[in-house]
Write the structure tokens for this entry.
Amino acid sequence: MSTKHMDQTNPLDQPTNRLNQSKPTKIGILLRVALFVLIGYMGMLVFPWFIQSLVDSLVVTAAMATFASAAVANAIVVRIYERGRLSDLGLAWTTTSLREFLQGIGFAAAAAVAIVVAPVAAGVARFEPAPSVEHRLSSVAFIAVVLLFGAAGEEMLFHGYAFQLLIRSIGAWATILPAAVLFGLAHIGNENANTLGILNTMLWGLLLGFAYIRTRALWLPIGLHYGWNLALPLLGANLSGFTIGVTGYALHWSVGGLWSGGGYGPEGSLSVTLIVIVLGVVVHRVFVDPEEAATNEPRPTEP
């Protein structure tokens, strides 16, 4: 077999993150993160204004503006400093991408079902008819696509270039913890936001950052984020303060806000605190950090 043929590899088997692994200086890190934040911030000022002129929906505006801002910020900064592309930020399609994405959706959707079905079965919550749109199926499909863009956008914004640069510069948990705090604080302006809801959102930020560490790609975090964001509205519950009425029924509680989350939705309840911890254990047991696995792989013995 020729050497040329032996060097050929399947691009789907390549690492999902091909960024330059060299560590820039502290000033270099600060400049890169600052530029990323500046472009993202400017996008969150411009894109909502533009999108809102086209559609009269707060959910659509928030989701699409976040996606556009994150995509532009990541694309510009990774091109300037790494000569790379968006796919280099853990978005390259590999042999494990679909599995991680679908597993993320499945785990998060199952968690959402658990925190809704259990109270309904216990008689402390019930489904009641609610105003709905005329074309229900098409509306559900449309919202499903919008929420996918929203989940991908938030993951690129909070766990994209700046997050990944800081991980390889200052370490995993030194990056995940402050990123999770920022993720929670970004939701503080949502309608009906409460203290427990913001803390739970920070806990979700920890989970999503940890999910990136376990796979070194964004497909699992996007799947977890999307599965959760899609399941709650389909179950008639509020999502981070948003009421997305497309199913024709709504979830009503007969217990206090500690377990129902009030107007913020289940994310403002103690039940979500517990379920996110469970999801963290699941992610830890099911997925293995590829860099850790490569380090622990036994070396071949000499013949």
